[in-house]
Write a structure and sequence with these properties.
The structure is a single chain. By secondary structure, the protein is of the alpha+beta class. The chain has one domain. About 30% of the residues lie in helices and about 45% in strands. It has three helices and five strands, in the order ααββαβββ. Strands 1, 2, 3, 4 and 5 form a five-stranded mixed sheet that branches. The longest helix is centred in the first third of the chain and has 41 residues. It is globular and about 40 Å long.
Length: about 180
């Protein structure tokens, strides 16, 4: 009898966890679609990157805080050939002269098969050698080149932060079954 009750509780817990995860994923996907629209509203030339990339990842809500050591994290939706294929998480750690907090959206465009494969096999990360371009502060030509098959854009949302730091981002991809 105890074994049966334990089994029932475990099944209920697993079902509730899956349901909660599915609800969170749906919220992130909705937020990602809204973030995509916001990026395109600020700079319609980004449509070329959406059309050109083999895959892209939209992190609609990334939060960052720092006092000398900074950390950021966010969850995102992964699209391949424009189709939603999974979810991703991002963690960032950096160190340097920095203080404050901010929220932003980030899009990573993956143009090459290698970049897509690395991302989907959880081998993708980048550091100070790859910089993100703030969409609302772009140069008039907005001709950003890919670095190793990757282009990154950010859209500030709110907050105030002063920083000169070095660090990197690490990503984890979770495909839909």
């Amino acid at each position: 009898m105890k074994t049966k009750n334990i089994l029932m509780v475990m099944m209920l817990f697993f079902s509730v966890s899956l349901f909660a995860q599915a609800v969170d994923d749906k919220r992130v996907v909705t937020d990602a679609e809204n973030a995509k629209a916001a990026f395109l509203e600020v700079n319609p030339k980004l449509q070329h990157y959406f059309d050109d990339a083999k895959a892209y990842v939209i992190f609609p809500n990334v939060g960052k805080g720092a006092v000398i050591i900074g950390a950021a994290s966010g969850n995102g939706a992964v699209y391949e050939q424009g189709q939603l294929v999974g979810m991703a998480s991002m963690k960032q750690l950096d160190v340097g002269a920095q203080i404050g907090g901010k929220a932003f959206s980030e899009i990573i465009f993956l143009k090459t098969d290698k970049a897509v494969e690395d991302f989907m096999n959880n081998k993708f990360r980048f550091g100070s050698n790859l910089s993100a371009i703030a969409v609302n502060q772009s140069p008039p030509s907005f001709d950003v080149t890919y670095t190793d098959g990757v282009a990154v854009f950010t859209l500030p949302k709110e907050g105030l932060m002063a920083e000169v730091s070095v660090g990197g981002q690490k990503f984890e991809f979770r495909p839909f079954d």
